[in-house]
Write a structure and sequence with these properties.
homodecamer; 96 residues; alpha+beta; Alpha-Beta Plaits; 4-stranded antiparallel beta sheet; MLI_dom (chains A, B, C, D, E, F, G, H, I, J); isomerase (chains A, B, C, D, E, F, G, H, I, J)
Chain lengths: 96, 96, 96, 96, 96, 96, 96, 96, 96, 96
C-alpha cells in the first residue's frame, strides 16, 4: 500500500552540532535499511530545501506511523502524508 | 532530470459528457505513450481525489512544460510542479 | 484500517431539483449498505454545514478510493482524507 | 452531545525529559478515566503526526472546555473543536 | 448553551430579484421569531459586508444545526460556528 | 459603537509563573471595571482555547485602541477587531 | 473617525457592457460627492489591480456601513475594513 | 510616487527594556524628520495592533527601500509594501 | 525603476475561441512593442502554468499601472506586483 | 535552464553580530563568483524586505540544489524555487 510522505527537516541553529551529525548518520543507516527492505521505495531531495519527497510501500497505516515516528530525525521534521493507489491508466500492473 | 507534478482534474458538470469521454481516452493514450518512453516515470491516484501525483524524467524545464500543456485534459487541470534531485543517502545511483 | 474522511457537499442552485432528490436517495441507500457492511463505521453531521465527518474501516487505500469516487453525490463533494491508526493509550484493543 | 476534537501536541526539545515522561503518564491516566466514563468516546492517532483525532460526548460546551483545558498536556497542545450531531441517514439511532 | 455564528450571504447577481426579496422577507420573519424566543440572542451587521455575527442560545448541537439549515437564505450562506461558554471572570452569572 | 474583538492569549511556558498569576489578577480586575462601566459589554470563552470573544461598546476607534493596548495581558495577546453595527432586522432598537 | 477600506472590483465578463459603463458613471459621481463632503478622504489605485485603497472619515461604524453598501458598484466589490486611529508620534494633530 | 506600507512591530518580551525605549525614541525622531520632509505623508495606528498603516511619497523604489530598512525598529518589523497611483475619479489633481 | 510582475491567465472554456485567438495575437504584438521599447525587460513562462513572470522597467507606478491594465488579455489575468531595486552586492551597476 | 529563486533572509537578533558580518562577506564573495560565471544571472532586492528575487541559469536541478544549499547564509534563508522556460512571444532567442 503506497503513501507519499513529505518531510521538512529543521534542526535549530543552537542544537549541538556533533549530536546533529550523529543523528544524521543514524538516520541515514535507518533509511538505507528501510530502502533495502522495499518499504521506503523512493526518496528525492526537493530542490533548494532541506526536505524530501518519499514513497512508502507498507502493510498498513499503523506500520507507516511506526516507521515515521521512530526515525532519528523525526523530532525535527514536519511530516505530511497522502495515501495513494494504483492509477487505472498505468501500463504497469504494479507501479511502485 | 526529475520533477514531481500534481494534477487536479476538474471537468465542469455542464461539460458535454461524450466529449469528456473522448478527451479522457486521448489523454490515456498520450499518457501511456509518455509512460512507455520513460518520460512519465510514475503515476499514482491520490485517494479520494480526481487527481494524480506523478514523477517526470525530462531533459529540461522546456520539455516538461511542453509535455504538460499539450495534455488533452490540461485545460481542466490545476498543476503544481516541484523540481527534485537525487537524495545523497539513496543506495540506488539512479532512483527514478 | 481506519481513515477519517470529511465530505463537503455543494449541489449548485441551478442543478435540477428532482434529479438532486433522486441522487440523495441513491446516496442514502448506498451509504446504509456500506454502514451495514461495517466499512463506513461512523458518520456525523458538522453543525451548520452540508458536510459530514466519517470514519471508514477498509482493507486498503484502493478500496477506500473506490468506495468514495463511486458515491452518487461524489461529483458534488470536496473530500479530504486522513489516515488514522490505533492510539496506544486506548483501553479498547480495537477502537473503531 | 458530540464534538470532534483534534489535538496537535508539541513538546519543545528543551523541555525537561523526565517531566515530559511524567506528564504523559498523568495524561494517559486522565485520558483512560475519561474514556471509561464514556465522555472521551474515541481516540485515534493521525498517521505520521504527534496528534490525535477524538470524539467527545459531553453534556455541554462548558463541560468540554473544562475537560480539555485541564488535560496535563494541554499547555503543549493546539486544539480545534467542531460540534457534531447525528446524521439523518444513519441506521443507528445513537451513533457515538 | 452559547454559540457564535458568522453568516456570509452571497446571492448571485443572476438570481431572480423578486424571489430574492421574498426570501429576505421570510428570513426576516423567521429571524424575529427566533429572536423573540431567545434562541437567537444577538445579531450584528459586519461593517462593509453582507454578513452578520450572531449569538445563539440553544439546548444542543442538533437544535443549532436544525435552526441554521432551515433558514430561508441558508442555501446562499457560508456559515462558521464556534462553541462558546461562560467566561470565569464575568461579573454576570449568565452573560448571554 | 460596537466592535467584536477576539483575544488569543499565549503566555510562554518559560514566563515566570508568579508574575503570570499576578498579571491575570490585575487583568481580571481591569476587565471587571470595564464590564461594570458598560464598555466591555460581553465576554465568552472559546471552547478548548485560551481565548475569548468579546463585544465592546465605545465612543470611538481611539477609545477602543487605548482600552485594548493597556490590558495587562496585551503583550501576550493576538487581537483581531471587527467593527459591527445594528442589524436592520433586529426587534431591539439597541441590541448591545 | 478613520477607516482604511480596500475595494476589489470584479465585474463579470458576461455583464452587460452598457449597464457597466452607466454604473461606473454613477459610482464616480457618488464617489466625488462623498470626496467633496470630506467623508471619503483619500482614494488611490492599487498598481496592476482593479482595486482601490481608501481612507474614510465618518461619525460611526453605521455611517461607514451605509456609505459602502449603497455604492453603485458594491455588488461587484470585495470589501475589507480596518479601523484606524491617530498615531501618537504624528506631528499633525489631525492627520486625515 | 506613492506607496502604502504596513508595519507590524514585534519586540520580543526578553529584549532589554531600556534599549527598547531608546530605540522607540530614535524611531520617533526619525519618523518626524521624514514626516516633515513630506516623504512619510501619512501614518495611522491600526486599532488593537502594535502596527501602523502609512503612505510614503518617494522618488523611486530604491529610496523607499533605503528609508524602510534604516528605520531603528526595522529589525522588529514585518513590512508589506503596495505601490499606489492616482485614482482617475479623484477631484484632487494630487491626492497624497 | 524595476518591478516583478506575475500574470496568471485564465480564459474561460466558454469564451469564443476565435476571439481568444485574436486577443492573443494583439497581446503578442503589444508585448513585443513594449519589449522593444525596453519597458518589458524580461518575460519567462512558469513551467506547467499558463502564466509568466516578467520584469518591467518603468518611470513610475502610474506608468506600470497603465501598461498592465491596457493589455488585451488583462481582463483574464490575475496580476501580482512586487517593487524591486538594485541589489548592493551585484557587480553590474545597472542589472535590469 | 532557468529558475526563479526567492530568498528571504532572517538572521535571529541573538546571533553573534561579528559572525553575521563575516557570513555576509563570504556570501557576497560567493554570490559575485556565481554572478561572474553566469549561473546567478540576476539578483534584485525586494523593496522593504531582507530578501532577493534571483534568476539562475544552470545545467540541472541538482546543480541548482548544490548552489543554493552551500550558500553561506543558506541556514538563515527561506527559499522558494520556480522552474521557468523561454516565453514563445519573446523577440529574443535567448532571454536570460
Amino acid at each position: 500500500m503506497l503513501f507519499m510522505v513529505k518531510m521538512d527537516v529543521n534542526i535549530p541553529a543552537e542544537f549541538d552540532a556533533e549530536k546533529a551529525t550523529q543523528l544524521k548518520f543514524v538516520e541515514k543507516n535507518r533509511f538505507q535499511e528501510l530502502q533495502r527492505s522495499g518499504k521506503w521505495r523512493h526518496i528525492w531531495r526537493v530542490v533548494g530545501q532541506y526536505a524530501n519527497v518519499s514513497i512508502f510501500d507498507v502493510e498498513s497505516n499503523a506500520e507507516l506511523h511506526d516507521l515515521l515516528v521512530t526515525l532519528p530525525l523525526y523530532p525535527f521534521m514536519t511530516v505530511t502524508v497522502a495515501p495513494l493507489c494504483r492509477h487505472p491508466s498505468s501500463i504497469y500492473e504494479d507501479d511502485r
